[in-house]
Specification:
41% of the residues lie in helices and 16% in strands. It is an alpha/beta fold. The strands form two sheets. Strands 3-2-1-4-7-5-8 form a seven-stranded mixed β-sheet, sandwiched between helices. It has a two-stranded parallel sheet with strand order 6-9. The structure holds guanosine-5'-triphosphate and magnesium ion.
């Protein structure tokens, strides 16, 4: 196991507050200015959590807003990328930064309030105790979606069945993007080899975690539709998922 920045740091003396924020919540953003300022305080309400926003040069000023918040709040960081490079590469860049900064737990969370911060304690507790990867799951008892129309439900349910059967994944919700990794499992996965960038990214990470022997658990979440702002889902992202599941199945990526 590699030494981390946190482990290298000299012990603090003189009653300085002990930093217990060993969980980095990574929030990728593209045009989320109406959400991110409300979301960050709700994450920081959990003392173990810090926030790392990975913003892709949002034209609406999301990055500038986060930069301002980060100046005042040491538990907030910004990783600014020059343009819209996709969700998967945003997470990979975020994972590398969080690991380098010594995070023990790493959470993935959308900015649009589909992923309610009130589930953070359940995700963190399960990842601290029993599992290397804990999925926030819409499709276990107690979980679900609200506000979704028929076609969105069909795509989500169908996508999970499709990926689950073809890859033999032992989970009910492999496409969701609200989850918690232990540091060790991200270190064990070859992050440079991850190829998927949209929905397929979530499936690929479950598949790769399983391949390196991760214990994977699920906790129920209720998933409402995004609060405000525009969805970035596209036909191309769905197509990538359909194709990449087979490429993963045959070890082509
Ligand atoms: N950095 C970065 N973030 C992105 C990119 N695409 C999407 N995001 C963010 O990823 C999260 C999920 O994107 P959404 O558009 O909500 O996708 P979704 O949840 O699958 O779709 P909806 O259910 O319609 O909201 C949000 O916080 C987006 O702002 C990207 O290319 N780069
Ligand atoms: Mg969303």
């Amino acid at each position: 196991m590699t030494m981390t920045a946190a482990q290298d740091a000299p012990p603090r003396l003189g009653g300085a507050p002990v930093d217990i924020a060993d969980c980095t919540v990574i929030v990728p953003t593209y045009n989320e200015v109406d959400n991110i300022g409300l979301l960050i305080p709700q994450i920081l309400a959990h003392p173990r959590c810090r926030v790392l926003v990975v913003d892709d040069g949002s034209p609406d000023g999301t990055g500038t807003m986060v930069e301002r918040i980060a100046r005042e709040e040491p538990r907030v960081g910004l990783l600014a990328r020059p343009g819209k490079l996709g969700l998967g590469t945003a997470y990979i860049a975020g994972f590398r930064r969080a690991l380098a900064e010594g995070a023990q737990l790493i959470v993935e969370m959308d900015a649009d309030f589909s992923h309610d911060p009130r589930y953070l304690p359940a995700l963190i507790a399960a990842a601290s105790r029993d599992y290397d990867l804990v999925l926030g799951s819409r499709y276990v008892r107690g979980g679900g979606t609200t506000d979704w129309g028929f076609s969105r439900k069909l795509i989500s349910r169908g996508g999970n069945l499709y990926a689950g059967i073809i890859l033999g994944l032992p989970v009910a919700d492999s496409t969701g993007g609200y989850r918690c990794y232990r540091r060790g499992i991200l270190e064990a996965i070859d992050l440079g080899a991850v190829r998927s960038n949209g929905y397929a990214f979530q499936i690929e990470m479950v598949h790769r975690a399983r391949a390196v022997g991760a214990r994977i658990g699920e906790v129920p979440i209720i998933f409402p539709d995004r609060r405000v702002g525009q969805s970035k889902m596209s036909r191309r992202i769905v197509l990538e998922a359909l194709v990449n599941v087979w490429r993963l199945r045959f070890g082509l990526i």
